[in-house]
Design goal:
single chain, 901 residues, mainly alpha, two-stranded antiparallel sheet, 6 strands, 2% strand, elongated, DUF2339 domain-containing protein, transmembrane
Length: 901
């Protein structure tokens, strides 16, 4: 025993001893009879471990020799705390391997086994190169004799050395190399010109079979996969590196057959994988040898059949096989198909589709056989069969027929899956059908050829697309897994409709298809139909929109406005159906939005300009009413927004329209209904409590105010605004509409500003009275009326009063000049004071006092320096009298004024 092992055993013994000692030191109570003595545990002194030379005593033996009796009384289970185990350093990987295999085995593994196999492989390669190389001093017989001597020497040495147990691994390498050399030499004796000594091919083949049989017999006797693997690898390597392509390829069939028989007999799966991979690798390495197509195909088919038969035999075995054994099928299929296709492409490319079709039938039969052997073993074969058939169809058939044939293949797979309830086949059918669909889309985008049948002209791929659509919807009804055949069918139908419909009618056609899908979804209660309808509706909206922009004209052609109107009507129908049947708020809102846009465009294209705003407003009212009728909030919101659009339209075609019908201007007969509709919408929607609905009141007033500007002319607009402001103030206070009161404030300011900016400079006269005085007087009067209509002690009362006083002062400034302006402002102040006392309007009195103080400032700042002497004197005298009079009134009637104040 090595010193390292002894050390580890000592460490383990010390650890176990420490744990036993800890357990013995714990006091234990036991119930004992009165007469029986009570024993307590005695500490055990463990001697140090003996030296290495002394015999070892195990822990069990040591415990068995203890003479101290220990009686343990039963007690409740308690967790026992043990000291942590002693730290043991991790053993390096090399040391652990040495412990497992021993020092001698380790050296044998690296130095004896691996190097032995590599040396045998190199020796075989060298022998094959020797056979293929022509020497000037050695003939074929001499070369064969040398090779046979080397092969026999290797085999004899292997047989002799394998008797010694210690050198058995080395002997296996010699035996494998000997068999490989003998096999290569035997084949060269009749197949390689440089070493040919046998001219009868039949005799040479029999000798080669005999060598292979001897190798198999030897493997069966010793049952050593290592020997066989070395022999197989050496043989394949020799064939791969042989200068003669005949040697490299011709010997593959018997060699592979022998190895596969051996692998099946002894369940050596690695030999089988090695055989198939090496065989096709050698063929690829040697390349095309120029042999006839039939010969090459027969040779490849023979190889494929051998490997496929081996793989099927493995499937029938009841013993499980390792996972890597499944590589035989893909390697065999890949090698056979690629090499065969390359040969056909080089020699006869026109008939390559026929080979692909034959290969598809071959793998179809293979799938049937595999399915009978094992329930799920057919899958890879059927996938290959389907793929090969699809390639054959695409390569052979052209145009739309390729898609039709792919669709037929997919349908056959689907029907088989449906008949036998095979989910895998159904998914495979869906993949093939997807290829047919993609092919159809490619053809539709690339081909513009037309055909005529029964007086109808259509694209040459349309019948194929319709057939695929019918197949798709049929499969949708029969499906057992959630494969979206219905979506493919809908896409095909929409593709055909888009290609065969005139562009100007395309939007209406697609919208009609949308309605059909939606109704099918309600009838069949199928959500996939509804989603197809959504997609179709999106395309329809885009088609209608692009068609409108491409053919923009007013008035629109019948095809355009009919298409728009039809799309709009169907859009509203979709809105109501989706909402009332499914409760789809968002989707129905999108449909309503698109339908509303189409309706607005139709009315704009077909109706006279002046009536468009009225039509839009009518549409807004209808949408709001429909929203209340069907309890669709978004429909109402769309209606309100359409109303805002109608108001915007007024600026483009209504306010500036000068037409007259029946004595009424077009402005009047269009703007008033729009304004009244806003009031109706506000009144109708008050229960919604949406804050932004107050905008309707402002839009209604704005429409009337702008209409007054165009209807009442340049001068009397301010009068209309003032009167409208008075009415809004009265109505706003009566019905507690704060927005109308604010509109009254705005109109008052607008009227005052417009008077100063425009009316004061107007030269027109009416009944001998200047227009500026008439309009300004009416506006000022309206402002003071509004002051007294407004609630007392509120800011609006002061606002109206100050606005009227400022407007009157501005008018006096415009009409009176020189010393008369100071007197006029003084008289205005007196009048304000005089009116403020009886009316108990403090703002009037304060405004009058401010005006009088302003007059005093004007006297000393402006009049004193700029006026002539006489006007200056008159200003001072008049203002003095006014001030004295005001002072006398405040003094004389102090008590009465205090009551008035």
């Amino acid at each position: 025993m090595s010193r390292r092992r002894v050390s580890r055993l000592e460490d383990l013994l010390a650890e176990l001893t420490a744990r036993v000692y800890a357990l013995e030191q714990k006091p234990v109570e036991r119930p004992a009879p009165a007469a029986a003595p009570v024993y307590t545990p005695v500490p055990v002194v463990v001697p140090p471990p003996p030296p290495v030379e002394q015999p070892q005593v195990s822990v069990h033996e040591e415990l068995a020799t203890k003479t101290t009796p220990v009686v343990l009384a039963p007690e409740p289970e308690q967790p026992v705390s043990l000291p942590p185990p002693a730290f043991v350093a991790e053993t390096p990987l090399s040391d652990r391997l040495r412990e497992m295999v021993g020092d001698d085995e380790w050296e044998s593994l690296v130095g004896g086994s691996l190097l032995n196999k590599l040396g045998a492989f190199v020796l075989v390669i060298g022998l094959v190169l020797f056979l293929g190389y022509s020497f000037t001093q050695m003939g074929p017989a001499a070369r064969v004799a040398v090779s046979l001597a080397v092969s026999g020497g290797l085999l004899a040495a292997g047989f002799f050395v394998e008797r010694l147990q210690r050198y058995r691994v080395f002997a296996w390498g010699l035996l494998g190399a000997g068999w490989a050399c003998l096999y290569a030499t035997t084949y060269a004796m009749f197949a390689v010109d440089a070493a040919r000594v046998i001219y009868n091919d039949t005799l040479g083949g029999l000798l080669l079979v005999a060598v292979a049989g001897a190798m198999i017999a030897h493997s069966l006797r010793y049952q050593s996969q290592t020997v066989t693997a070395i022999a197989a690898a050496s043989a394949y390597g020799a064939l791969a590196l042989s200068p003669s392509k005949q040697l490299g390829v011709g010997a593959l069939i018997p060699l592979s057959g022998a190895l596969l028989y051996l692998a099946d007999r002894l369940r050596w799966h690695a030999i089988g994988v090695l055989s198939v991979a090496a065989t096709y690798g050698i063929i690829i390495a040697h390349g095309d040898q120029g042999s006839p197509l039939f010969t090459t195909q027969a040779f490849l088919f023979t190889l494929w059949l051998i490997f496929e038969a081996f793989d099927m035999v493995q499937l029938r075995s009841e013993q499980p096989r390792p996972g890597y054994a499944a590589l035989i099928f893909p390697i065999n299929a890949l090698g056979f198909l690629l090499l065969s296709a390359a040969k056909w492409e080089k020699v006869d490319p026109a008939h390559l589709p026929h080979f692909l079709a034959a290969a598809a039938l071959l793998y179809l039969g293979d799938a049937v056989l595999r399915g009978r052997m094992q329930s799920n073993a057919y899958q890879y074969s059927i996938v290959l069969a389907s793929g090969l058939a699809a390639l054959a169809v695409v390569r052979h058939a052209g145009g739309a027929w390729a898609s039709v044939m792919l669709g037929v293949e997919a349908e056959l797979l689907f029907l088989a899956a449906w008949r036998w309830r095979l989910r895998f086949l159904e998914w495979l059918a869906a993949i093939v059908f997807g290829g047919a669909l993609l092919r159809m889309l490619w053809i539709a985008a690339d081909s513009s050829a037309m055909v005529t049948w029964a007086g109808l002209t259509f694209h040459n791929w349309t019948p194929a697309a319709i057939l695929l659509a019918v197949v798709a919807y049929t499969n949708r009804e029969l499906r057992t897994v959630p494969i979206p055949y219905g979506y493919a069918g809908s896409a095909l139908v929409q593709l055909v409709l888009g290609a065969e419909s005139p562009k100007r009618w395309l939007g209406l056609v697609w919208t009609s298809w949308t309605a059909i899908l939606l109704e099918l979804s309600f009838w069949r209660k199928a959500s996939d139909f509804r989603r197809q309808a959504y997609f179709a509706w999106v395309l329809a909206v885009l088609a209608v929109s692009f068609s409108f922009f491409d053919h923009f004209s007013r008035p629109a052609a019948a095809s355009e406005w009919v298409s728009l109107a039809g799309a709009s009507a169907l859009g509203y129908w979709m809105t109501l159906r989706l909402w009332t049947r499914e409760g789809k708020l968002f989707v129905s809102s999108l449909a309503a939005l698109a339908a509303t846009g189409f309706a607005m465009i139709v009315s704009w294209l077909q109706l006279p300009d002046v009536t468009v705003a009225v039509a839009w407003m009518a549409l807004a009212v209808l949408l709001v009413e429909a929203g209340y009728r069907f309890q669709h909030n978004h429909l109402r919101m769309i209606g309100h927004n359409v109303g805002v659009g109608a108001f915007t339209r007024l600026f483009f075609a209504n306010f500036t329209n000068t037409g007259v019908t029946g004595g009424l201007s077009h402005r009047l007969v269009t703007v008033l209904p729009v304004s009244g509709s806003f009031l109706y919408l506000y009144r109708r929607s008050r229960e919604d409590a949406w804050p932004w609905l107050r905008l309707h009141l402002w839009l209604a007033t704005a429409a009337i105010a702008i209409l007054m500007r165009f209807e009442m002319g340049h001068v009397f607009t301010v009068v209309g605004w003032s009167l409208l402001g008075v009415g809004l103030l009265v109505i706003g206070q009566k019905f507690e509409l704060e927005d109308w009161r604010w509109q009254s404030y705005a109109l008052a300011l607008m009227a005052a500003v417009r008077c100063v900016a425009s009316n004061f400079d107007d030269p027109q006269s009416f009944a001998g009275l200047p227009g500026r005085l008439l309009t300004a007087g009416l506006v000022i009067s309206a402002l003071y009326v509004q002051e007294f209509l407004a609630p007392r002690e509120e800011l609006p009362r002061t606002y109206y009063s100050l606005l009227g006083s400022l407007l009157l002062a501005s008018l006096l400034y415009r009409e009176v000049s020189g010393s008369g302006l100071t007197v006029a402002w003084g008289l205005q102040g007196v009048l304000l004071l005089a009116a403020g006392f009886p009316a108990r309007e403090r703002v009037l009195r304060l405004t009058g006092l401010v005006l009088l103080l302003g007059c005093i400032l004007k006297l000393f700042i402006y009049d004193l320096r700029n006026l002539e002497t006489l006007p200056r004197i008159l200003s001072f005298m008049a203002l003095g009298v006014i001030l004295l009079g005001v002072s006398w009134v405040y003094t004389r009637f102090r008590e009465r004024l205090r009551k008035l104040l």
